[in-house]
Task: structure prediction
Amino acid sequence: MIKKLIFIVTLVFIFVLIFSDFDVIEFNPENTDMSVESLTERDLVDKTLENWLEEQFGEIYDIKNISFLFETIDNDKNSYIVLTTMLYTFKLQDISQHPVVKTIYSFLKTNSPYISNESKTYLEGLLIRYKDNLSYYMVSEQELNIRFKVFLSGKTSEIFIEGPHNNYQKTEKYYKKPSLNELEETVNKSLNDELANFDSHYKGLFGNGKYSMIYDPQKAISYANTYTSNTSKINDCGDGSFVYQDLSFYNPNFLYYSCTDCTNYVSQSIHAGGIPYDFLWYPGVSIWACADGCTADPANDFFSYMLSHYCFLSKNSVYALPGTIAMFDWNNNDSPDHAAVVVYNDGYTLKFSAHTSDKKEYLLPMNFDTYYLIFY
Result:
């Protein structure tokens, strides 16, 4: 009787093992048991994105590898959300021929009426930092992350890129391929436009140069890239919106804010870079964690505090060297709604890291409408 019972249980167990997986399999990027049709569509998406990346970046970078993480597939709409990682190295190996370096150097040699002693000192420092950064970039493999949404229609496709605010824009609207010939003209115009008003905000805080000496942008960048990720985990914010947020990458020594942790994260990063706590700016208060406009008093926010203590404001990406704070105004009301850390700028490509949504070494177009808080 016992043997018969064991035999029956064994048969039931085998039956469950064999037939329990006959339901529809949820898509997994690591799953190789996809249908031929699905594989063909994925191959088309891969090729479409590879071609776009090569077209946009192939002139400047030697693309070593491109990997794709298919996060979402909507079969009804033939749409795919794909997190793409591109590994690359510089093709240019002579720093003196870099358009930004060439332009700043030639600008310093001119007798421009905009170049005072103070602005000349700043530009000389800017040139040194560009050259130092480029020296590192040219001997090391770099990583660029972009989240795409791809719509397929037969063998044709339409590509969108996710911006800092989780919204998708057509590639041609979000990102414009940097032209090597136009870049020098753009930098030259940027320098002229900025330096025309440079002394007024530059002298206000730079006088003794103390802030530039206490802030170490590399430490801020290292912190920023350590405590974020390009997660696919979605946090529903309860108001119809969502963010990508993965707490396992957050620093457990700090409080976090569900769905609104961007400025808290930026404050942590620049504190790691050397900006000290004071009686106004410390973890948990509005000035530490609120980008702008969160209280009735406009002074009680991060944006105003940084401008009055450590930074000058620019919308010019030429000055947004790694360690700079990037702030975004979604509502076009001159009040920033989101903050991030610039972690890379080679004059062609700018990347940022952020929280809510969590992003790491993510593409930010050089001409994107951004407030940059530049440390003196």
User: Anything to note?
Assistant: Residues 36-57 form the longest helix (22 residues). The CA atoms of residues 213 and 376 lie 9 Å apart.
